[in-house]
Design a protein that fits this description.
This protein is mainly alpha-helical and 109 residues long. The protein has one domain (2-106). It has helices spanning 2-25, 31-66, 73-106.
Length: 109
Amino acid sequence: MAEIGSIGAIQASLQAQAAMPAARRLSSVSGDEKAAAGSFATELNSAIRRVDRTMAESNGLSERLLRGENVELHTVALRAQEASLQFDLLLQVRNRLIQGYQEIMRLQV
């Protein structure tokens, strides 16, 4: 459950960062570059939503299994592993983005 909350926090943080500073930064950028930046933000947000949806589905299947409903154990295990892998990949992408941002901030102008 804590992992789903952290996905929501990541998504909220990305949306807040994308809303304010991006508008100021993109004011001096060409139209194609604006579209590419918007496309990246859109893709990142949709990836976060997909991970969140997969985790919610996995949790729902686990709860149904625990209640004794007719759910195959291997389906629950497969969905749980899929959700875990997707979340791990999302964390790696986040870490690489932060690492890239920190490298840019270290550049001397």
